[in-house]
Amino acid sequence: MFVYLSKKIAIPNNFRLNCIAWNQRQGFIAVGGEDGLLKVLRVESNTSGPSSDGKTRGLAAASNLSMNQTLEGHNGHVQVVTWNEEHQKLTSSDQHGVIIVWMLYKGSWYEEMINNRNKSVVKGMSWSSDGQKICIVYEDGAVIVGSVDGNRIWGKELKNTSLTGVQWSPDGKLLLFGLKTGEVHLYDNQGVFLMKPSSIFGNSGQTQTIVALHWYDGKNGYVALDCPTLAICYQSGRVQLMRNESDDNPVVVETGMTAVWCSWNNSGSLLAVTGLLPLLTNGEKKDTNFIQFYTPFGEHVRTLKVPGREVTCCAWEGGSLRVALSVDSHIYFANIRPDYKWTYFSNTVVFANERITKDGVCVIFWNTTNNSCCTKYVRSLISVASQGEHCVLATRNEANQGMEQFALIVCNTIATPIDTKYLDLEPLWITMTSNTVIAASKNNFILWNFRTPRNSALNAGRTRRDRIYHVDDTPTGVTEVIQDLDRDRTFETPVNTKATVDPICTICSTEKILLVGRESGMIQCYSLPQVTLTNRYSTNARPCKMAVNCNSTRASIIDTSGILTMLDFENQKGSGDNEDCSKFERKDVWAMCWAQDNPTLLAIMEKTRMYVLRGLDPEEPISCSGYICSFHDLEIRCVLLDDLMQHPDDTRPDHILDLEVKSLRDTRELLAKVGLKEANNFIQDNPHPRLWRLLAESALKQLDLETAENSMVRCTDYLGIQFIKRLQNVHNDQLKRAEVAAFLGNYDEAEKLYLNLDRRDLAISLRQKLGDYFRVVQLMKMGIGGSDKQMEHAFNKIGDFFAERQNWDGAREYYEKGRNLERLIQCHYKLEDYHELAATVDQLPDKSPILKTVARMLASVGMCPQAVNAYIKYGDVKQAVDTCVRLNHWDQAVDLAKTYKMVQIGDLLNKYAEHLLSNGKRLQAIELYKKANCHLEAAKLLFKLAEEKAKERSNPLRVKKIYVLAALLIEDHIKNTPALKGTRSNVVMGLTESNEDSKVIERAWRGAEAYHFLLLAHRQLYNGESDAATKTSLRLREYEDILDSEDIYCLLALSSCLNRAFATCSKAFIKLESLEKISESKKEDYEDLALSIFTKYSPKDSRNSRTECVNCETMVPDWCVACPNCSSRFPACVVSGKPLMDLTTAWICTVCRHYAATERDVVNINACPLCHSTITYI
């Protein structure tokens, strides 16, 4: 960080100033002094005037007083001023205790409220962070808390207490009071005492007056998770920094001054402490004003000497780039140039946002070419450096990422880590070469040869070891040679880690040398890549920054006082040709950058001016407050980091400034106003490739080919020389001008000249080289169009343009015009237009490789038939079958296997089914067999499932449905069996099946019939149709192999008892009592129940209806299921369950082949009662 005084404002009548406050939001400055002096000033930067060109932005902009108002109302010395930034109010108090609140109205400040206690002097006032409450403390111990509207909230008298200051906590819940004795007391916002925070003086009995309290409110974030925010400044010069009010381990700072004030900047990253320090001047001691800057952890950053007799206060500007100090009757402004953590490489600015987040520190990679940003979060960033195409971040390691405490991360321009090195050496300073990172702590430095993808491939077996050196050692390079030859790594030298008395304070490097600066002012020079100490140089001050020119012959050094000196490595004594660098000196320098292509050019920043040093002679300064990124081709690129840090999310191209050196500006002026000859003479006196290139371009525009060729030779532009030779063969001046315009990048002008010459072909060729195919198509349509092939090529290129930008609609349109089926397929797929994608199969020829791509795309979205069609057309039947299997289209897979005689599909099907069954996925196996048209296998699995459900006593309706589904699959099997192409009876009779399969087919509907009649009997029973229920129950006796016998005969006994068919009921009870599977107790229950029934009723059927058998004309009971005489079986009606003696009038289902008594029985139902198939006709 660098600080310098930039401006001074004198107060009229030499009134002494006592206090100062800077409104960080609106920029108003309030100063209070003797005899009631109270002024409000506003210093604004003139960045919008006609002379503002963007270079003079920030601190470099001219500033003027836009407000200078004297506020009248105080009679005594004004001692305290404070701002309420939330409500734009100013509060002031004087030695008589008069407090005035001022408000802004129409651009001027007016008195709003006044209060006079008339008892004591106000020693401190503080507004809460939300601006709603103010706390006022008096010297006699009185405390008043009021609201922003002037109402008193509460007051308190602290007995025997002399107060010196007050601060609100950031959340507004606590009040901290400073006492004249050096103690601090903590109260809540209602005035209740809480505690005495720990003091650095403890119980020593020393009386130390507190001169300032400042508690940072955290509104702009924190620089670290545990950084102190509360500063307590004592008159003795000690500053106590606390993390919170309960911090038992505060940071203590010894400033060595008689302190008068302290203040945090707006982000809590710097604490400014002002005071007086006695210095010996001309043999006598004299108090001198100083302002010192510290980090939140108490590290000293910078000290600035301030002129005048006595400094009384200081205040920060809102952006933390300026500090205002009240000294005697003057206001001094000091500019701050912070040491941001940033670097620049490959057109990319890398900078770290100081505010820490929950993810750590955000490092932003801003590509200035396309204005895009990439981010990377690290736990804690120590430093950053760059070289070539890479940068390195030195970070503190995560606690869970190994034993090493620190890490070096090499990244590219898009924040991607290329290589990482973990180490215990704290990398306080880092520098880079093209393949080496050099990191230094206070005692040691390490050379790490990082690996990039490019050099890893080229030098796979030639990597160097990482080497650590102590700053006090004298390496000769011999050890490194031995280690490079020692492939087995048996030769290791111990690392010296002793603390040195002269620590390292800065480093820099080139490909040839490494400079290490030490606090004593000594600079050690090492050669690279073999690290050998070649020289030591002594300077008069501690170096802060160092830089080496492009040929490693000269170094520039900035010390801690901002003084720039030079160090010449090749200066020989007695040589009068070289400039003497030993006496060169520039003051107030805070940044520098050597030219990358000229070892004598150096750009430096002095305050808000940039100087370019040619040798040791400075050119005319340029007003600028940017940080220098690079110096190349006589152009200096700067970045306005101050603006970037304030708004890191708002990266704009105008944050980058490109400044030209004087010779480049003069050359442009000579070429524009004088002529080529004079410019040529000037450039010969000030040679540089950029100037020769500028002259060559100007000569080409004037068609002075001789001068242009000479200039191209001077700047070693081989392509330019070849262009001039080609141009000499062109005899038309207009055509030459068109070629020159195209060569210089003026493509629109070149096209216009070509068209004026009626050379549309050359204009088209130019646009094709540029890749501007939109214009190519326009030019082709302007006259006689090009060939179809040329137009299709142009359309395809435009399609590529849209495809690269993910605009697939636009790409498809032009690919269709260009007849590019291959890319059109990609567009259909990206747009999810799969029907169009499938349609392209018909447009492609057989065996086309594109068919395979289309098939894969269709298969990826589950369009199996279309994918199979594409594979078949391509000729890959195996892949088609595999696709069917993968997408679970087994029927199609089986058909393909049969068509193309592939025998392995059956084995694959069975293996997959066994796999599903072993995993308990029976339903999936059934579905698999169904899709593969293996209906019989699916039916067998369903029969097993139904039997298991029946044993589990599941819902009978569900069991019936399972049996029906299995029977329907058997029917499908019968229909699809091609054997004999005969009748259904062939299959049913088992002529084409194994014995087991034929049984399954023959008994297909028995399970469904059993549960159908069981459900029907229950329904009839509950509906009171006892006769029908009895007949249906009698039918159930045929299904004892499927249904439980006990259930059958219990149902029969119940229904026949209700039907008063006691003979049938008696037979049912006899059957129940003879069952072996039931327990004895149940048998006794059944016997008791039968006894109770048949002691009351005789075992005779009350109804005895008879019907004639159609075969033998014998009269049989209407409940018989078979004729006793001729054994003819009577099928059951699926609607009523009664036996059907005459089938001539019966209705038959076309699916399950079961009967209903008459067609009238099915008139009012929509589906077959048994198989539930829809009845389509009667």
What does this entry look like structurally?
The protein is α+β, with helices and mostly antiparallel strands. β6 (about 80-85) and β7 (about 90-95) form a beta hairpin. Among the domains are: about 1-335, 7 Propeller (Methylamine Dehydrogenase, Chain H); about 1105-1178, no CATH class. α11 (about 760-770) packs antiparallel against α12, α19 packs antiparallel against α20 (about 890-900) and α21 (about 905-920) packs antiparallel against α22 (about 920-930). Strands 48, 49, 50, 51 and 52 form a five-stranded antiparallel sheet that branches.
Short recap of the structure:
The protein is of the alpha+beta class and 1178 residues long.
**Average pLDDT over all residues:** 87
Q: Superfamily at the CATH H level of the domain at 2-337? A: YVTN repeat-like/Quinoprotein amine dehydrogenase
Low-confidence stretches: 48-52, 572-577, 987-992
Count of separate DSSP helical elements:
31
Shape: extended
CATH top level label of the domain at 2-337: Mainly Beta
Largest sheet: 5 strands, antiparallel
CATH fold node name of the domain at 2-337: Methylamine Dehydrogenase, Chain H
What does the radius of gyration come to?
A: 50 Å
Structural class, by secondary structure, is: alpha+beta
Instruction: Give the amount of beta strand, in percent.
Output: 25-35%
Helix content: 25-40%
Number of E strands = 59
- What CATH architecture of the domain at 2-337 would you give? 7 Propeller
Domain IFT121-like zinc finger: 1131-1175
Domain IFT80/172/WDR35 TPR: 691-778
Domain IFT121-like TPR repeats: 1002-1101
Keywords: Cell projection, Cilium, Cilium biogenesis/degradation, Cytoplasm, Cytoskeleton, Repeat, WD repeat
